[in-house]
């Protein structure tokens, strides 16, 4: 591949168009060394690897604007259709001068323990800063103001008609987009956040709070109260409902102490259990789809309670919701780990494919790989992403699929005074037998789309093709009229208009057991691509498991040493003036004045979280 991250990558708009074209044409990598098999010795055998990616299928893209108007338009500042290092974050900054002003320093610090995880009214972890004050607005280049001020001042554009965005503008501003192939959020107390803080990889990224949890009920989108402050300030709930909701949420936080309240329902679904708790239908809907975010038919009572507890424990650590989103997109996360690895000598070879694994016949262990130039690279351990394994190796594997859709729209699915909202909506199944759909809507201050537009990600486990799974949901929430079509229904006028869309199915190999692969040497470890879950816990657990199997006495992702603590080999003694360039810079602890942040992450340092 010529970009980092595989199916975790992010692209500019032109980069994504090139990726779509590649997947639709199913381009295969040509062999530079056609007679590479002659390089295999008599006591060796090979396990061939794929030279094309078969994890993406059913790619369909649609433009709802006038494409002819964009024929002669070029992406501003673009150097190539598919940049060597992808298009997100600091990698893209080398190719886009406008991004160089955006800081990529540490934005997470080791937090203090929370005394009240159910409450997000006032934080107690003031050292954590999901996003630094003064981060530049991607559209204006001006420092971003604190979101508390933004929400207090009514937005002038909220009362106006949404600005009309053309396809030519999207192409011209293509480098404003950082479009993720996989859509996820980071739980504020999830394994990935803990790992980023521990390993100091967080210094290479910045984060923005998800500002709203939404629900779709009775044909309309509404905001869900989830913290104690939200619940008691809500105008959607009656006083009785507020008390019932807080009583149930408190129970979920302490459910281990009250086993008698749920043990009789352990073999029944969480939805059935909610029906026995004297909760109104609206409260049951909020808890099931917007707080626990679990299936109505398949989730057990205990799993549902645990999911609710996880949600509540994540509230208030960095803001008023449990979730963070990395600026420049999810594709920044693998690149951040790449940067830390490179600091300590790791080497990444893009546009450099591998032909096969070379296996010693006597020991059965893999001893080397051959690349497409015929070069042999030896190692003791080999970690292979599932998509590289050929059909002969994975013939007994049964894969699941993920349905994905990515939309560029002209307005938010729930308009408020503040246009800079990061929203998550879990859409209940449209028809029986269909899965629920997770929808994440990103605004321009996430550095993932141009000004006055929104980037919307839809994800669900596949039952059919991605378009068949997700288009009914898109039609409920958005208008698919083109620029030349007249909108005759008031309902259609009120909906956000889709400007461009792509649908595709992605392989989910997260649940595959190692024993399912055929003829796999013991020192070859297989990692999966993205799964369909909202968080990243599966990937972190898998990485740690593989690392511990290879190096059982070593610590997984330890904190990097300070430059003055770096010890060098005798062959390369360090001097006072040189030799420390490969060590990461140390960063002083942020002052309280630096703790404010956009996205509702901070207020007063003494009473709100950083």
From TrEMBL:
One of its GO terms (molecular function) is GTPase activator activity. It is found in: Cytoplasm, Cytosol. Residues 566-575 have a biased composition (Acidic residues). Residues 109-120, 150-160 have a biased composition (Low complexity). Gene3D superfamilies: FAD/NAD(P)-binding domain, Guanine Nucleotide Dissociation Inhibitor, domain 1, Guanine Nucleotide Dissociation Inhibitor, domain 2. SUPFAM superfamilies: FAD-linked reductases, C-terminal domain (SSF54373), FAD/NAD(P)-binding domain (SSF51905). Keywords: Cytoplasm, GTPase activation, Transferase. Residues 402-532 form the RAE1/2 domain. InterPro entries: FAD/NAD-bd_sf, GDP_dissociation_inhibitor, Rab_escort, RAE1_2_domI_C. GO terms for biological process: intracellular protein transport; small GTPase-mediated signal transduction; vesicle-mediated transport. Residues 87-162, 553-610 are annotated as: Disordered. The keyword Cytoplasm applies. One of its GO terms (cellular component) is nucleus. Belongs to the Rab GDI family. This is RAE2 geranylgeranyltransferase. It comes from Nothoprocta ornata.
């Amino acid at each position: 591949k010529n970009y980092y991250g595989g199916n975790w990558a992010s692209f500019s708009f032109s980069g994504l168009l090139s990726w779509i074209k590649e997947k639709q044409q199913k381009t295969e990598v040509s062999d530079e060394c056609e007679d590479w098999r002659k390089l295999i010795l008599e006591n060796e055998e090979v396990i061939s690897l794929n030279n094309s990616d078969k994890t993406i299928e059913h790619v369909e893209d649609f433009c709802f604007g006038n494409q002819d108007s964009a024929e002669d338009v070029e992406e501003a500042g673009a150097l190539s259709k598919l940049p060597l290092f992808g298009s997100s974050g600091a990698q893209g900054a080398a190719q886009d001068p406008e991004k160089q002003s955006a800081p990529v320093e540490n934005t997470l610090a080791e937090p203090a323990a929370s005394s009240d995880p159910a409450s997000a009214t006032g934080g107690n972890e003031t050292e954590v800063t999901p996003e630094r004050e003064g981060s530049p607005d991607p559209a204006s280049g001006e420092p971003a103001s604190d979101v508390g001020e933004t929400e207090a001042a009514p937005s002038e554009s909220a009362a106006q008609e949404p600005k009309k965005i053309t396809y030519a503008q999207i192409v011209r501003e293509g480098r404003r987009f950082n479009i993720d192939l996989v859509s996820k959020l980071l739980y504020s107390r999830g394994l990935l956040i803990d790992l980023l803080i521990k390993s100091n990889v967080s210094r290479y990224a910045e984060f923005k709070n998800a500002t709203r949890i939404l629900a779709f009920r009775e044909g309309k989108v509404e905001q869900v109260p989830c913290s104690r402050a939200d619940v008691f300030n809500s105008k959607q709930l009656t006083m009785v409902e507020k008390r019932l909701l807080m009583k149930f949420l408190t129970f979920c936080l302490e459910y281990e102490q009250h086993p008698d309240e749920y043990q009789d329902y352990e073999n029944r679904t969480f939805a059935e259990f909610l029906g026995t708790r004297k909760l109104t239908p609206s409260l049951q809907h909020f808890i099931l789809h917007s707080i626990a975010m679990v299936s109505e038919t398949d989730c057990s009572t205990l799993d549902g309670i645990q999911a609710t507890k996880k949600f509540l424990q994540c509230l208030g650590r960095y803001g008023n919701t449990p979730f963070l989103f990395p600026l420049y997109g999810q594709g920044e996360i693998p690149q951040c780990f790449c940067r830390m690895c490179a600091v300590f000598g790791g080497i990444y070879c893009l546009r450099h494919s591998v032909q096969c694994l070379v296996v010693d016949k006597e020991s059965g262990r893999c001893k080397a790989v051959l690349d497409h130039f015929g070069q042999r690279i030896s190692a003791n351990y080999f970690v292979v992403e599932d998509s590289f394994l050929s059909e002969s190796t994975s013939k007994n594997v049964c894969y699941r699929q993920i349905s994905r859709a990515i939309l560029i729209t002209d307005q938010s699915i729930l308009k408020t005074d503040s246009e800079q909202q990061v929203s998550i909506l879990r859409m209940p199944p449209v028809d029986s037998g269909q899965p629920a759909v997770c929808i994440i809507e990103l605004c321009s201050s996430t550095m993932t789309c141009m000004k006055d537009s929104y980037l919307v990600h839809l994800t669900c486990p596949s039952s059919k093709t991605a378009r068949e799974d997700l288009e009914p949901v898109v039609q409920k929430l958005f208008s698919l009229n083109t620029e030349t079509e007249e909108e005759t229904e008031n309902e259609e006028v009120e909906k956000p208009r889709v400007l461009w869309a792509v649908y595709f199915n992605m392989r989910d190999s997260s649940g595959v057991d190692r024993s399912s692969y055929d003829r796999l040497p013991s020192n070859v470890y297989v990692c999966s691509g993205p799964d369909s879950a909202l968080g990243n816990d599966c990937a972190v657990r898998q990485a740690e498991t593989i690392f511990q199997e290879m190096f059982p006495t070593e610590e997984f992702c330890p904190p990097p040493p300070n430059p003055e603590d770096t010890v060098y080999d005798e062959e390369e003694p360090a001097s006072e003036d040189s030799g420390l360039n490969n060590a990461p810079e140390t960063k002083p602890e942020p002052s309280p004045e630096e703790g404010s942040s956009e996205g509702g992450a901070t207020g007063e340092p003494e009473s709100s979280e950083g």
